[in-house]
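We both want to read discrete structure tokens more fluently, so let's practise on a single case. Would you write everything just below, so we can both look at the same thing?
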Amino acid sequence: MYGVRTSARSRRLTLRVYPGGRVEVTVPTKTPDTVITEFVAKHRAWINQRVLRARERAPVSIDLRPTQVELRALNETWQVEYVAQSRRPWEHNGAEQRRVRVRDALDPSQCGAHLRGWLRYVANERLDGWLKSVAQHYDFRYTRMQVRQQQTRWGSCSRSGTISLNVCLLFQAPEVVRYLLLHELCHTRHMNHSNRFWELVAQCEPEWRVLDRELSSGWQHVPGWVFA
């Protein structure tokens, strides 16, 4: 099984396999169903291989209406309440009570979309201060931070000094998140993975190899609704 997403900006058919094994085909507007079917059939071997790999990296089960969300990076567990009427897709009453109210919907996937909006808000609010603190401690300079939901990368650093962080970092252990922040900050001095880059990483975090391995398998900690 696979999902189809139509994009007016697409010029060709593309495939993406998400953590957990969900397959999505992005197609240009007005692409015939027969063309999509033939495209998927042509790449079936590649899809099967990637699906198996994805299912090893992340849980397959997807609960689109979770009653609680554990943010390991922050050592916080948030209770989720679904309400029929709400002015906003989501709202919460602060980190003290750790309760988020989400607008309910007949389509469970829409509840997941509302939760993802809340997750991006939390990531922007909490990772920003965390990154600033780590950068100040090690005397790194960067231009700005942005939060994204990358499918294969935990973070990146552009030549202009913009550091992009994956919202899914909130589901990782604090020491793993700190390592990723340091990793991207080191890229502000070395825009590659040269020996000099890794030497700098090791100076800041001697246990980087262990933490890097943990991060590589970190998708298994990400709930399925994040990708649904």
Notes: The mean pLDDT is 88. The chain has two domains: 3-57, 68-226. The two ends are 14 Å apart (CA to CA). The helical segments are 33-42, 44-57, 108-138, 174-186, 195-204, 208-216.
